[in-house]
Amino acid sequence: MRINGFSGMDIDKMVKELMQAHRKPLDKLTQQKQTIEWQREKYREINSKLVDFRNNKLFNLNMNSTLGALKSTVTGNTAAVSAKAVSGSTAGSIEIQVESLASAARATGESIGTNINPNDIKLSDLHSGTIGEITINGAIIELSPDDTIQTVINKINNNKDAKVTAFFDSQSGRMSMISKETGKINTDGNISFGDNNPLVEIFKLNSFEPGTDASVTINGIKTTRSSNTFMVNGVEITLHAPTGTQSSMITTSMDADKVVDTIKSFIEDYNSLLKLLNDTVEEKKYRDFQPLTSDQKKELKEDDIKRWEEKAQSGLLRNDSILKKMISDLRLDIMSPVTIGKDADGNDIKIILDEVGITTGKWEDKGKLVLKDEAKLRDMLEKNPEDVIALFTSKGTPDADGNTPKNTQGIFQKMYDDVKATLDSLFEKAGTSRFTDALEAPLNEESVIGKELKSLDLKIKDTNRKLLTLENRYYRQFTAMEVAMNKFNAQSGFLMNAFGG
Question: What is the pLDDT of residue 500?
Answer without folding.
Answer: 57
